[in-house]
Amino acid sequence: MAERLPKLAVHKFASCDGCQLTLLDCEDELLAVAGAIQIANFAEASREIIEGPYDLTLVEGSVSTPHDLERIKEIREESKVLIAIGACATAGGIQALRNARDVEEFTRYVYATPDYIDTLAESTPISDHVKVDLELRGCPISKAQLLETVVAFLNGRNPILPTYSVCMECKRRGNPCVMIAQGVPCLGPVTQAGCGAICPAYNRGCYGCFGPMESPNTTALGDQWMEMGVDSRTVSDAFHFFNNYADAFRKAGDMYADR
Amino acid sequence: MSTTPLLLTRADLDRMIEILSERGYHVVGPTVRKQEHIISYGEISSTDDLPIGIGDEQEAARYRLVERGDGRLFGYVLTDTSPISFLLPSEAVVWSGKKSDNGFETAEMAAPPRLAFIGTRPCELAAVAIQDKVFLGNGHQDPTYAQRRAGTFFVSVDCTEPGGTCFCDSMGTGPGADGGFDIGLIEVLEGDDHYFVARSGSDEGAAVLSEVGGTPADDGRVAKAAAMVEAAAGEMGRTLDTEGLKEILAGSLDDPIWKELAGKCLTCANCTMVCPTCFCAAVENRTNLDATEAERVRRWDSCFNFEFSYIHGGPLRPSAAARYRQWMTHKLSSWVDQFGMLGCVGCGRCITWCPVGIDITANAAAIRARMEEKAHV
Ligand code: SF4
Ligand code: SF4
Ligand code: SF4
Q1: Which of A10, A254, B34, B276 is buried most deeply by CB count within 10 Å?
Q2: What percentage of chain A exceeds 70 in pLDDT?
Q3: pTM for this model (two decimals)
Q4: Cβ(A9)–Cβ(A54) under 8 Å?
């Protein structure tokens, strides 16, 4: 191939690295990916940094410091296509739980010298600050969705990323519903597909890692959980989890907390 | 086709399973998946694999396995998914190809396995008849369905203990099967007397039965079995009044009642995923990394998803009410215009497996009441 390979950059904000590692976890596919794309700026994979602009940029993590605010703007400027990956980058992450609390108080408790801490009061998704071309949900993101997105990008087509419920994947996989057959509360009906319904396949309820689905009826599900014997505090905590700052889950969590 | 019923024992059923696999069938029947607390269709190799003495209780949004304390092989109500999920798999490759020097080459499709179902319920046979009409009738044959359907063998078992969400009697699809089976069974267990009354419903069914053997059934046992099926008709957990329902629903489309009925709907699509008459699928095109290989895949889709009715600018049915109305009026009204029959066989799966227990029979009755009330003011 004489053509120039598309240049890929991967950046990290406030996050645990799990989503970027999904890219490195594509063991079998990685060689093919590496042959089709130039990994130009990916600290987790290589120390060598090739200068931008980049054709494709993946951003992991939420914006949580004043420095992040500057950096995300610079990254946007040098990226043709910017994709936010994971619950932190798309919804502020678990750390967004602080958004409704007093961050200064937290820092006083946690750090010996809180003066060294320079943080924003809120942890927010990338799309609150710059234009995002695509979001990959999940905590962590799905390897299959990441590969699908890269393949679609390389071939100039739209990736197939459904926005319907986890239940769709659950049934396609042949799982009997854990809510109904075992009385196990599950967030699948209000959560976006993408994980392949892993948890119900192992007799666990869905934890909502992929955030709200396209038309989440959080009250109908929360009320059903309560009918199954779950207390409102637990319902609230379930919504206030990895995607606690995603609109539908934040509101539902707040509502059940007040019941 | 034999009209004289035969009497079979459990050992005869084992023989039948053997004969079917000798004839090249993958034999599928109800099996207990212990970890998942469910009786589901899976491959079986003898009657030992059947849910011996295990039953199920079904209610809206509730399913529980129960120990029956007897030796019945088919003493459960209904599996979670139906044979339709084998005939219309959740994902089927309909085309695949590779780039070649002069264009592309189409790959040969592997023939699907031939399946023999043991324990098919009458409502499931009725669902197969509906899908036959959809996929094989109207002058067009759908190859994905046709290929799988052509090799299918059904050993049905009539229902003698319907469940809490069953209403096949209302839909005229059960509890006994009139046809659609290759071999039709009724299981009877009275004290130590455990037997199956068997009839054949096709030439191949007759051939298999004659290989199995068995003994001619005595009138007393035949009558006993028939009476049990007849009594089951009166023990349905649910009923649905179909009288004039098509017109009632067609006239209800703008009624605010749909908003009430769908208030709890999660738009999760479970009802459509478990329904044996739902047939909608989405077609996805996939490529490998460098686009040298491509495949076209058909996957289960649902009218509860936005994308299903997405046209330029957005989905045609954005509200839950519109999506629920589409689903229910299709089953019980517009299906008649489309296929000349109702699109519901009364299996009750959508009621059992709806996470919030939305009930098609209760809602049909509510709409009937509302429309009748309107007509009288
Ligand atoms: S187990 Fe959860 S994801 Fe699966 S069908 Fe039930 S509610 Fe939906
Ligand atoms: S609509 Fe419900 S009761 Fe009717 S066939 Fe479908 S799943 Fe069964
Ligand atoms: S009727 Fe029940 S199963 Fe169907 S989409 Fe609504 S909530 Fe889900």
Answers
A1: B276
A2: 99
A3: 0.95
A4: yes
